[in-house]
C-alpha cells in the first residue's frame, strides 16, 4: 500500500491523511486556487522537521471531504464582494463572500484548527 504522502526531502512518510494532519511537524501555509477546477487547486504545507523544512503540496480534492457546509455555484472572484484572499497564496483567512471558492477557505480553517490543536 502506498503512503498518503512522503516527504521528498527527508523521506518521512505518512500512511494516512489523519497521520499527516496529526504530525506536529506539518503546518498548513498556503493555498493556490485553480479557478477552472477548484478541486485541483493546491494546498501547501511545511514539513518543519529538523533539517528538512520542505514544502509539500496537495490537491484540494484530497481534503475537500473534511468540510460539510454549503458550496456556492457562482464565482465572485474579482467582483465587488470579493476580498481577494484567493489571490494571495499565504492568506488563509475565511472568505465572507457567497462564492464558489469560499468552501476551500473553510477547508483551510479546518486545517488551521488541526495546526492549533497540535501546538497546545
Rg, Å, rounded: 15 Å
List the secondary-structure elements in sequence, H or E: EEHEEEH
* Low-pLDDT windows of residues: none
**The number of domains:** 1
Helical content band: 10-25%
Structural notes for this entry:
- With 120 residues, the protein is of the alpha+beta class.
- The chain has one domain (18-118).
- It is built from 2 helices and 5 strands, in the order ββαβββα.
- A 3-stranded antiparallel beta sheet has the order 3-4-5. The chain has a two-stranded antiparallel sheet with strand order 1-2.
- The termini are far apart.
Q: What is this entry, summarized?
A:
With 120 residues, this protein is an alpha+beta fold. It is elongated.
Features:
5 strands; 120 residues; elongated; alpha+beta; three-stranded antiparallel β-sheet; two-stranded antiparallel sheet; 19% strand
Topology:
Layout: E1 5-6, E2 13-14, H1 17-22, E3 26-32, E4 42-47, E5 54-59, H2 102-118
Antiparallel strand pairs: 1-2, 3-4, 4-5
